[in-house]
Amino acid sequence: MGSSFSCCGSEKIDQGFVGGNSSWRMFTYKELHAATNGFHEDNKLGEGGFGSVYWGKTSDGLQIAVKKLKAMNYKAEMEFAVEVEVLARLRHKNLLGLRGYCVGTDQRLIVYDYMPNLSLLSHLHGQFASEAHLDWKRRMKIALGSAQGILYLHQEVRPHIIHRDIKASNVLLDSDFEPLVADFGFAKLIPEGVSHMTTRVKGTLGYLAPEYAMWGKVSESCDIFSYGILLLELITGRKPIERLPGGAKRTISEWISITINKDRFKDLADRKLKGHLNWKQFDHVLHLAIMCVQTEPDKRPTIREVVDCLKALMADGEHKGSIKPMLMSISSVRCDTDEDEQASREHRGGGDQESFDYGVFSAIEEQKMRDPYKHHENLRMHA
């Protein structure tokens, strides 16, 4: 990073670089207060357990998004430090980099470029959903761009980074609907030569890989699972978890299994597409997503394979990659109790559920799944 933290009240400006030729710097609290009209409610873009995000405009005309953390406890301080450290390392067009930050006695703020098309979530389920901006071509572009951003995290930056919170609200869209993966507060830096780690579970349960949700085993494959859920959400327009009449919940995986078993393949596509899509591409993307959400992490493709597959599909509409498109069973994670929803809030750092999170996967039936990493370790011990 270009500088150490200093007080927001300081007029000293330190600079660094993020992506392309864009620079990041330290902002004063006074600057950000003025840019956001005093963090006015009309400027608020979103709110969650971490705090609030505000739209702003600097004195030189730059549109920014300012994340203002709600509380300064040890946990929030660590997440802030991790996000700033990770953001300062990123140099990729599909990752939302750092525009700047501000640190004061009781204030922590992170500054990003403002994305005029907001998040993927806002177009699938939110304020732009009825406007149907996401045609099939844009959805494929978003799928590929998001995967390329994750590929950079997993294989190109050093040390490798596991995002741990891939979801629709963390995929932002610029003016050309180019996707940028955002929000690195839960990111994990992986030392060279380490394939997986055991850590405290963080993230959004609707997207968490089973081995991570149950045992805290985090690996790059956890991001693949989350990406698979995101891909299913992108092509079907369904939420990761839906409430049914009577209060029951159903995951997107369960819905897809039911729909396929009823031989209603074309009902899987988002109705907002009105049938205007490349069905061959849809078929392959669906199978790719299903492979990403397999229960066993070693059955999921790598992000490199995902990117290669999507590139081939976009190049000529035919799948020519190394992943054989075959329908595999979709792991089902059941949702039953309000206590589970409270658990999700705790994973997100306490407080109310984020306004842009849709439900959670609740208790996973542990007897249906073994710890894959423990299994491999036992095999090595008896070899």
Automatic annotation (TrEMBL):
What highest taxon heads this organism's lineage?
Eukaryota
SMART domains membership: S_TKc (SM00220)
* Keywords associated with the record: ATP-binding, Kinase, Nucleotide-binding, Serine/threonine-protein kinase, Transferase
Name the Pfam families on file. Pkinase
Instruction: Identify the Gene3D superfamilies for this entry.
Output: Phosphorylase Kinase, domain 1, Transferase(Phosphotransferase) domain 1
Residues covered by region (Disordered) = 335-356
* Basic and acidic residues biased stretches: 342-351
Q: Which residues participate in ATP binding?
A: 68
MF term (GO), any: protein serine/threonine kinase activity
Chain segments annotated as transmembrane? none
In this chain the Protein kinase domain maps to: 39-314
Entry similarity comment: Belongs to the protein kinase superfamily.
Q: What is the protein's name according to its record?
A: PTI1-like tyrosine-protein kinase At3g15890
State the species of origin.
Cucurbita maxima
Name of the encoding gene: LOC111485734
